[in-house]
Amino acid sequence: MTGRVLLALAALAAGCAAGRQIVTPRAEYRLYRETRLAPTVEARLGAANRYLHVSPNGAYAPELRAWFGNAERAYVASAHDKLPLLLAYAKALPDGPSIGTVNERIEELEAATRFLQERARAHEQRVESLETALARAATQRKAFVTELTAWLGALASVRSYGQPLAALTPDVRERFALTELTAGCPLDVCARSAEPRFAIPNASTQLIPREAAYTVELVVASGTVAGLRLHGRELFSRVGEALDLRPVSFSDPQSRAEAIGRSLLVIENALGAPLAAGACERPAVSPVVLERNCDGVHVTVTAAIDPGADDVIAFGPETKPPPAPVAPRAKRPKH
Fold first, then answer.
1. 224-233 and 214-221 strand pairing
2. How far is Cα 4 from Cα 75, in angstroms, rounded to an integer?
3. Helix 41-54 vs helix 83-92: angle between axes, to the nearest 10 degrees?
């Protein structure tokens, strides 16, 4: 008896469910079915929202209304800071109950995203600009040291002291623009000036501009080559900065001494093998920091001792040591 009752109740329940499907329009049931089987939460919410708009009094409306209210509020809350979820909501529920709030939040997040993107672009542009400036500064520093070394090498090669300007090498004549040798040099000095500019980085990734002006002079006496020199205001400090990338100041004797040391390495390299240390080297007495005298050339390198004064590299004919004094003959005793 009990078994037959249970079978009867089960058949009745199945019949009711089937009956509800039969009396419910096919499209309405299909929409209800989507609220349960759609692959994403947004799709299920969208289906429920459409159902409640199309069939607010439909057979499944009470069930969906109870589920949709809580699920939609939970979704919006969880999507508050997630732009993709908010955009998905706006697409699936263009007339959803929270569409106004969702659209406002989308605008806020998109504005914040644009701000961050613009700030990132500005940062990238600053980095690119700094990298470009650093590369340009490095090129300028290298050009300054290279050209200075070339000048020193050309001056060190001169062996025509006491001879007419025509005896100078073509390279030296070209450097001093001596195209018409008969014209000589105004006031017996031919000068060429350079004003190289470069920059050195500091700790804050900014660049400190520097100007390393110097002058090269050819001194003429009675139409012949008397001497050459290269000099510039605190030139050795600028060379040290270009090589070590550190500011040099007269108020910091240590940095100035290190810059002079770095400059001497450049100068010695430019002088070449004929004037290398050894037999050519002479004792240097301050303010002279280097002196070479051999192979027909006398070189003196003098470091400025006052702020703003010129550091000087001078070239001239080799000087011969004075003859040793002759000891007086001893007088013969008179008999």
1. antiparallel
2. 47
3. 30
Q: What is the pLDDT of residue 15?
A: 39
**Token couple for 60:** 């499944």
Cα-Cα end-to-end distance for the chain:
179
Write the pLDDT tens digit of every residue in 225-264: 999 999 999 999 999 999 999 999 999 999 999 999 999 9
Burial grade of 95 (CB within 10 A; 0-12, 13-18, 19 or more): exposed
The closest of 139, 315, 307, 290 to 216, measured between CA atoms, is 315
Q: What's the token pair of residue 108?
A: 């806020």
DSSP calls for 218-232:
EEEETTEEEEEEEEE
Interatomic CA distance for residues 123 and 144, integer angstroms = 31
For residue range 291-332, list pLDDT tens digits in order: 999 999 999 999 999 999 999 999 999 998 766 666 666 566
Tokens read off for 303: 């470091």
Full-model pTM: 0.68
Coil, strand or helix: which one is 295?
Answer: coil
Length reported for the chain: 335
CB contact set of 42 (below 8 Å; sequence gap of 6+): 75, 85, 88, 89, 91, 92, 93
Number of other CB atoms surrounding residue 158 within 10 Å: 22
Give the burial class of 52: count Cβ atoms within 10 A of its Cβ; 0-12 exposed, 13-18 middle, 19 or more buried.
buried
Residue 164 DSSP symbol = B
Q: What angle do CA 231, 233, 236 make, to 5 degrees?
A: 75
Q: Which amino acid is at 152?
A: L
Distance of alpha carbon 25 from the chain centroid: 71
> Residue 190 has which token pair?
């031919």
